[in-house]
Amino acid sequence: MLDFMEDNRVRIRFAWNNGEFEIEGPQEYVDTYSETIKAFTEILKSSANGQAEKETPAKGKQISIFEQPSAPTVKTTSDGLEVPASFGEFYHKAPKSINKTDIVLLASYFVQSQNNEQTFTTREVNKLLRDHGIDLTNTAHFNKLNQDYKKVFKMRQGQYKVSEEGVKHLVEILR
């Protein structure tokens, strides 16, 4: 399955009975996995043709078709925060007890770090959260709370930016 997403983002997902493989990110990032994806496709094809039985390694032996990508999977922003290539990894770094306002701040910072203007909109944040199965009833309300707490400020109509205070708060959360 190949999905083209907003902002030149791509998602590739293979699913089968024993597991799945998924990669998501900007086209350039996904391209770094092209050889891995081709190899994976060949393994799935051979498995479907019954050839996998003959090629299965001895029990207990592990094989890997995955290589490290040439592009970095984590980028360090000008604020010093390390932001993984996917929001899911970034969200996973946060504690389980994170509140909804902080989830929106985390997603806001992720969106901001992914675009050239270094800003975000509540619409982008809402879409990102929904794409990851996090359905908040009113993202704009939580963004307004972040503004009230001076963790976010308005740049211009509909565009926001995470403040230094917001970045400090995220650093504390992600420790």
Structure in words:
The protein has 175 residues and is an alpha+beta fold. The protein has two domains: 2-55, no CATH class; 74-173, Arc Repressor Mutant, subunit A (Orthogonal Bundle). The chain is built from eight helices and seven strands, in the order βββαααββααααββα. The chain has a three-stranded antiparallel sheet with strand order 1-2-3. A two-stranded antiparallel sheet has the order 4-5. The longest helix is centred in the N-terminal third of the chain and has 15 residues, at 34-48.
Kindly estimate the percentage of residues that lie in beta strands according to DSSP: 15-25%
CATH second-level architecture of the largest domain: Orthogonal Bundle
Strand order of the largest sheet: 1-2-3
Low-confidence stretches: 51-65
Give the % helix. Answer: 40-55%
Provide the CATH superfamily of the largest domain.
Winged helix-like DNA-binding domain superfamily/Winged helix DNA-binding domain
What is the average per-residue confidence, as pLDDT, rounded to a whole number? 80
At CATH level 3, the topology of the largest domain is: Arc Repressor Mutant, subunit A
Number of domains: 2
Distance between the termini: 35 Å
- Structural class, by secondary structure, is alpha+beta
Order of helices and strands: EEEHHHEEHHHHEEH
